[in-house]
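Researcher: Here's a chain I'd like modeled. Treat it as a single chain, no partners, no ligands.
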Amino acid sequence: AEALALAPEEVAAAAGADLGETLARTLRGGLWEEFHWPAWEEAVADLIPGPGKFDALAVFEAWPHLIVANSTRVRVIDADSTVLTHDLRVPAGQSSHRCGFHYVDGALLVFWTGYGNSPVQGYWHTAPDHVFTLDAEINYWSVRSDRPTLPLPGGGRTTGGGVLHAGDTKLPRERAVISDGTSYWVWENTGEYQGEGAWAEYDPAENTRGRRSLPAFLADATRAHAPGARLAPHSSWMRPAP
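Model: Modeled as a single isolated chain. Structure tokens:
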């Protein structure tokens, strides 16, 4: 009792919490015991050379798919299965280069670059012998981008700075992008740091930005929380369900 008296406001807040709602929200999110992804486990077993060798594995976004690769092979997986397996055809003598990938309408773009001013080269897995110089604003350190891209209903993937189609030799600039399945938003920086800015409405087809706003899901995200709760916009994201 003496300890509780030291923090009366915190104790009152805890006593007033809706435990039923908290439990329901936790159950909706899932339990660790429920997590099981056979396609991922198969990819790991195939691509990791031995126990404890997870550093040989690289993972890339391709929502709603995931790209998993090592230095010689790449797999594209979805929620249920492996949709593509490809043995990499990076030219000999370039094994020290870093690879990146994009999965667009069933075609896999494989690209790589080295240190310094090395060009970015690549190929589509549907024509692996056709190696080309990729027109892209990336280097050795940014070839593995952490910015998600999203598929478009009419084909192609928006990078937040344009649309990438299967067979393209130019990779549009990448910018953080989110979508509710109908509309799109991209992140606009307003300061020196990446988290300083806001989401702006975006037209992928025209590559144009509009007014600043939030998807309804994010705009309503704090309503069920205590007064004063604030959304961290740059750390918040939304993608359409498969």
